[in-house]
Amino acid sequence: MSRRRPFAVFLAVLFLGVLLGSLAARYWAVGEAVGLSGPTHIAADGDRVVLFAGGELFLLSPEGVLVDVAPLARTGLDDDPIDLRLLPDGNLLVAAQRPARIHLCDIDSWSCRPVARSAMGWVERQFKLLPGEANGEWLMSDARGDALWRLLPDTAPHSLLPAGTLGGPNGIADAGAGGVWVADTDHRRIIEILPSGDGGYEERREHSTANEFHAGQNWFPMMLERGGDGRWWVTQGAEYSKGGADLLIYDPDDGPVARVELPGGAYPTDLVAAADAMLVTDMDRFEVYRVAADSLNAARFGDDRFRTRMADLRAERGRLDALSRWALAGVIAGAVLMIGAAAFATPREKRWTAVPPVFDWDAAPDRAPRTSGIHWLKRKPAIDRSLQWAEWLAYAAVLLPAFVLLGLWFWIREQAGPDAGADIETRLGELGLAMLILGVLLALLIPIIRMS
Predict the structure, then answer these.
(1) Domain final residue, candidates 296, 317, 338
(2) Are 405 and 305 within one domain?
(3) Beta 268-274 vs 255-259: how paired, if at all?
């Protein structure tokens, strides 16, 4: 063995370590970045503002002064909230979806207790809650079940509307007189639902969210809130949460009337009415905006302490994203260098196996020589057909899993729906990359089949 052979083997092992280390760093950075989202959901009343960002609950005054910060774990929930509401009695409602749980919290002590347990066994994901008029009554939009449920103590959940009326509903807001407005996401509309007088509910006014005011394909309504003048403010995103989002205003009778201009690159996520303005969260820019109801001018909300916390979260998220990108580059570079080092470590005469020449049947002798004891083999059509079928089956065994993986990935994307969060999008991207690599490896088997 030449002197360079052990060194080449060492390089191959070293680059394999770089590949595995970069892959581990990539998954770690992605996992950490998922938990560092900007402000998502927000709730407010006349005295307090509560919002969630970066795994913590922030309590602020109506003027934006930071009062308290509490880790989400103090509420007894492990998953990021999908809904926050401040109730008339001053308690905070916190809902999570993995698993589905609802906790009612005393903000002063951050002590929480579970509520609406009877409904949590069948709700799968993406729901929003609204307290009803009766004691212990809840209205819940169920995006997975395409329904609006009414929950009462010690009774089974009851759907307020016939099946098929709603498609992936999200935001739900009180409209007074026992009615609600719902963001009917998959049907691209906001719709008013009122009591019908016979104990049921019926559809009334509705407005399409696919109109001339939104940008691109931001026509999927997600959250909505009624302003002080009775108009509805609606956050609208694109399919699979891509391409940013818009904030539109709808008149209850006349439909869309305006689009709120937010800072460039803003991603309005949730909103809540606060006096004569609307507070809007921006999960991408780690900001909260205060939008004046009369002029529609947007200003940053929060004092210096709050903005510093948001800036720190944004900087940490940026570092994790940069590490993730460098780790991905390390995975690719490590794989290429490892293959090169492995080829370098292999003796030159063994690096490539020559493909045997194809037998030329035309050059074969027409008749066998008269040599006793020698019998020429003749090709049998049955064997040729069997070999051809074996080759086709080998192709199917290679290509079919690749198509199955592709279909599985698109099916998972479809199940995620248009309201998929950043964590799901990141996981889907990682899964797609792994499936792509596996598909390429399967495709490399085709030349081997041809040579066989």
Answers:
(1) 317
(2) no
(3) unpaired
Other beta carbons within 10 Å of 169: 27
Digit-coded pLDDT (tens) for 35-57: 788 899 999 988 899 999 988 99
Q: What is the domain range of residue 392? A: 381-452
What is the residue whose two structure tokens read 């959940």?
157
Three-point CA angle 440, 441, 443, nearest 5°: 65
In a domain, 335, yes or no: no
Residues 75 and 205 in one domain: yes
pTM, two decimals, is: 0.74
According to DSSP, residue 262 is labeled P
Q: Is 247 inside any structural domain?
A: yes
Residues of the chain predicted below pLDDT 50: 1, 374, 419
Residue 1 pLDDT = 46
Q: What is the pLDDT of residue 354?
A: 65
Q: 52-85 burial, b for 16+ CB within 10 Å, e for fewer? A: bbbeebbbbebebebeeeeebeebbbeebbbbbb
Of 317, 340, 368, the residue that ends a domain is: 317
Same domain, yes or no, for 389 and 292?
no
Whole-angstrom CA distances from 415 to 9, 19, 141, 410, 436 are: 46, 32, 18, 9, 20
d(CA 84, CA 342): 55
Asked whether residue 126 falls in the same domain as residue 221, the answer is: yes
Q: Do 250 and 395 belong together in one domain?
A: no
- Taking phi over 0 as left and psi of -120 to 50 as alpha, with beta for the rest, 244 belongs to left
CATH of the domain at 297: 2.120.10.30
Angle of the 422-443 helix axis to the 381-416 helix axis, nearest 10: 170
Domain tally, the chain: 2
Read off the tokens for 352.
Answer: 């490539």
Distance from C-alpha of 205 to C-alpha of 203, rounded to nearest angstrom: 7
**CA–CA separation, 36 and 309 (whole Å):** 12
